[in-house]
Give the backbone structure.
Amino acid sequence: MEIERKYLIDKLPFNLTDYPCHEIEQAYLNTEPVVRIRRQDDSYYLTYKSKGLMAREEYNLPLDAASYEHLLEKADGNILTKTRYEIPLGDHLTIEIDVFHGKFSGLILAEVEFPNLEEAESFQPPEYFGKDVTFSTEYHNSTLSRKVL
């Protein structure tokens, strides 16, 4: 089960390059239900996500590079590219800040995953977080993959 909150970020009060990061490329084979392929650095995955906004089922299966490239040719819509920075928050949470590139350059989203619904529902975001878009599908990566620019 994936439980996460998502926020827009307008301006960061610190330098992202001070934190660990991953280069991500992802594309969608299907958006309902979500079937996604992702390259994260030198690792490759096929992911299934059920319907849902703050909480939904998520399954990740490993792929090799050849399988990823084969499936990438079959993907629909926009291929998303982003740098994901990992910022520690408290003693057990991590803020994942996605800085998008390419067609979505300028978009910055923050996601925080939680161990349970109670913690997600009571979460008080840092001051620099912008609009809470957790309950909107507009900023789901699967929606962005279909967006015409």
